[in-house]
């Protein structure tokens, strides 16, 4: 609580004329004036009301998304198999491990089944705790088993309510971050309201519940809030140590729950690096944050049985390189403008070279190739040459990995969020550039302190960090739509902070020569309140209509398939098919899979490409040989893939396979000159004709409007 007061009045050398120091509230005999006592009481009441509002909004958000989920699926009324099918693609795979641990005879047996798993990838035994980020499922399953709630709450509800509960943590963290930056809880209220009214673009938790990002992003928001507090000036040593501990815990939990943690924290490390280079953050605190990132990731590496992908991450190489380069260049922040710029360019080059060398060395030693598909994808995405690589094209053709659609900005503009965001971003960016130039130019201290009054907001390390954070994650979101949720939630924080910030309005009004402290005070409260009233008036009816709209889960073909598998195949049967469908097969039936959607393993990617030859132009003998090499007993063919129309020509799965195999694609259109016609028809189409060359290897045992299941013959 004292830190909020400190933000409001304890600016040290930055104290302005409209904020008198405490000395003016002290009588000559040393007694505090009554108005100071009243101010302390007002601060206490303000913090209490703000805290209660934050918790209330967090809980309301949890109830809101839980209600939407129930209304959309009628989750409480549908069968268990339908509930499980509703966890689509990789969501079903992650939830299957929670279900497996719940159904295990004991906790020890359940953990043993994860460490020595032979059901997720046929003819292979893998360590699930090493390969995937499923410690949250482990923790929840153990918690469910030891708490006396089994007769009151089904396992699936315990799981989904935990995820919806984390949304409360998420919203509270966003609220607190905005409050810390602006000094008023009105800013946090506005941030939370923007998060809720822009739900389509800020979260997808209500329909992708077990997705890793829904576990991780609340902890990431807590980490940002803790970093924002850490970067404030005049913290007591105890406060600083406790905040560093909070940053470490949040970083560790974020890293533990999402496989893409290293890439998100690399962007965060780049933000710290940029600000440190321009003297906009305290170097000692930046060093601690680098160390926390490395230590948090290494601790996760240990828990994941020394996962080589973590050890070979660019984050560890980059942070280590920054610390090494800083040791080599001890006088980096001394000298005039040209001298500083020269040192800075050399410093950046040194860090980049060290990063690449260290990363290359680690990957060479560990023989690491798990993340090569990501770099192939990035290379192709940003135009560094076309590729026929199947894995890279699989990502390139998915809408989620494409550019951010323009209609996103129109939706964000409807709530005024985007307009306010651009306004605040422009002001702070201009001011930050000016301050960075002044820092590099080596002005004397007197001149610097005089100029600081003109750009107070950009001189605050916490505001500077959030500025670079939103810029870098904005660039990520613009380039990759799936990552927009990291940006849009912080956009709510940043825009609300700017709208409620004394420093931002002071900067603007001084720039147009209209500044008075009274005018600033009126604007910083009146405009946010008007914005809140506008949002309430425009979107409250829509939210009520949304909450009253009732739908029901309906997927009879998949339900029929899962029920048939459970009733007509042995428990040891091995199934091949698409990654997305097989995740549901494992969850609903417990059968063994040949492949699955968790794509961060080179052997699995090669295996998936081979299994997908069922949709390519290959001979029945080739397909049979491939499937049997993975121990396949049954193969599931989907008409939605075989006759796909969702993607345009060149991005259909069958087109990707044809191109990778060197074959001409189906349909009208151009083909690359070296592609040749295949000697065989498309397997998924031809097998349905029951020709002898196919029936000798494959027997159809199940069929409905969507799926065709074939049993493989077991030739000697």
TrEMBL record:
Listed Pfam families: Dpy19
Q: What are the UniProt keywords, alphabetically?
A: Glycosyltransferase, Membrane, Transferase, Transmembrane, Transmembrane helix
Membrane topology term: Multi-pass membrane protein
Question: Tell me, what is one Gene Ontology molecular-function annotation carried by this entry?
Answer: mannosyltransferase activity
| Membrane-spanning intervals of the chain | 41-66, 179-197, 217-235, 242-258, 264-281, 312-329, 341-362, 416-441, 462-481, 487-509, 521-540
Family affiliation: Belongs to the dpy-19 family.
Protein name, as recorded: D19L3 mannosyltransferase
């Amino acid at each position: 609580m004292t830190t909020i007061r400190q933000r409001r009045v304890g600016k040290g050398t930055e104290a302005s004329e409209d904020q008198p120091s405490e000395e003016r509230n002290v009588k000559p005999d040393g007694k505090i004036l009554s108005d100071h006592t009243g101010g302390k009481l007002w601060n206490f009441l303000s913090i209490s009301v703000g805290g209660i509002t934050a918790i209330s909004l967090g809980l309301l958000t949890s109830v809101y998304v839980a209600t939407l989920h129930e209304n959309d699926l009628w989750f409480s009324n549908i069968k268990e198999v339908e509930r499980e099918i509703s966890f689509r693609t990789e969501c079903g795979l992650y939830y299957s491990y929670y279900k497996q641990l719940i159904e295990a005879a004991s906790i020890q047996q359940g953990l043993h089944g994860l460490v020595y798993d032979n059901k997720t990838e046929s003819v292979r035994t893998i360590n699930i705790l090493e390969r995937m980020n499923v410690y949250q499922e482990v923790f929840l399953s153990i918690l469910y088993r030891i708490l006396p709630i089994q007769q009151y709450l089904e396992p699936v509800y315990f799981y989904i309510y935990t995820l919806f509960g984390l949304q409360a943590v998420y919203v509270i963290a966003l609220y607190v971050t905005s409050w810390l930056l602006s000094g008023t809880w009105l800013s946090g209220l506005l941030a939370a309201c923007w998060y809720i009214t822009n739900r389509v673009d800020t979260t997808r938790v209500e329909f992708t519940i077990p997705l890793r990002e829904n576990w991780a992003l609340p902890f990431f928001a807590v980490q940002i809030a803790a970093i924002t507090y850490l970067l404030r000036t005049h913290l007591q040593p105890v406060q600083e140590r406790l905040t560093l501990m909070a940053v470490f815990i949040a970083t560790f939990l974020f890293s533990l729950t999402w496989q893409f943690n290293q890439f998100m924290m690399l962007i965060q490390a780049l933000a710290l690096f940029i600000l440190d280079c321009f003297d906009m953050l305290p170097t000692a605190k930046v060093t601690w944050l680098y160390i926390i990132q490395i230590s948090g990731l290494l601790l996760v590496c240990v828990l994941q049985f020394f996962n080589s992908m973590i050890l070979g991450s660019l984050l560890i190489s980059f942070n280590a390189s920054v610390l090494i380069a800083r040791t080599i260049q001890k006088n980096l922040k001394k000298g005039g403008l040209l001298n500083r710029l020269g040192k800075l360019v050399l410093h950046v080059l040194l860090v980049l070279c060290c990063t690449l060398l260290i990363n290359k060395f680690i990957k060479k030693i560990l023989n690491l190739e798990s993340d090569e598909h990501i770099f192939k994808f990035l290379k192709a995405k940003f135009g560094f040459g076309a590729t026929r690589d199947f894995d890279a094209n699989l990502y390139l053709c998915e809408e989620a990995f494409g550019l951010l659609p323009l209609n996103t900005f129109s939706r964000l503009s409807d709530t005024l969020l985007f307009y306010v965001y651009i306004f605040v971003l422009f002001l702070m960016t201009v001011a930050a550039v000016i301050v960075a130039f002044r820092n590099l130019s080596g002005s004397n201290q007197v001149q610097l302190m005089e100029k600081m009054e003109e750009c107070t907001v950009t001189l605050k390390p916490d505001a500077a960090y959030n500025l670079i954070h939103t810029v870098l994650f904005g660039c990520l979101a613009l380039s990759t739509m799936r990552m927009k949720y990291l940006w849009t939630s912080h956009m709510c924080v940043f825009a609300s902070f700017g709208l409620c910030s004394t420093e931002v309005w002071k900067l603007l009004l001084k720039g147009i020569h209209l500044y008075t402290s009274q005018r600033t005070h009126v604007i910083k409260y009146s405009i946010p309140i008007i914005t809140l009233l506008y949002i309430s008036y425009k979107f409250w009816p829509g939210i009520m209509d949304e909450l009253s709209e009732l739908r029901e889960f309906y997927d009879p073909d998949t339900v029929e398939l899962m029920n048939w598998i459970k009733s007509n195949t042995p428990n040891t049967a091995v199934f091949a098919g698409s990654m997305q469908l097989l995740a549901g097969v494992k969850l609903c039936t417990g059968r063994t899979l040949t492949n699955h959607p968790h794509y961060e393993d080179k052997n699995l990617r090669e295996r998936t490409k081979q299994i997908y030859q069922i949709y390519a132009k290959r001979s029945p003998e080739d397909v049979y040989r491939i499937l049997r090499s993975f121990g396949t007993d049954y193969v599931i063919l989907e008409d939605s893939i075989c006759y796909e129309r969702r993607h345009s020509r060149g991005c259909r799965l069958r087109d990707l396979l044809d191109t990778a195999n060197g074959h001409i694609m189906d349909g009208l259109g151009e083909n690359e000159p070296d592609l040749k016609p295949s000697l065989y028809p498309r397997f998924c189409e031809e097998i349905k004709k029951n020709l002898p060359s196919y029936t000798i290897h494959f027997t159809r045992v199940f069929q409905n409007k969507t799926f065709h299941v074939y049993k493989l013959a077991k030739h000697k």
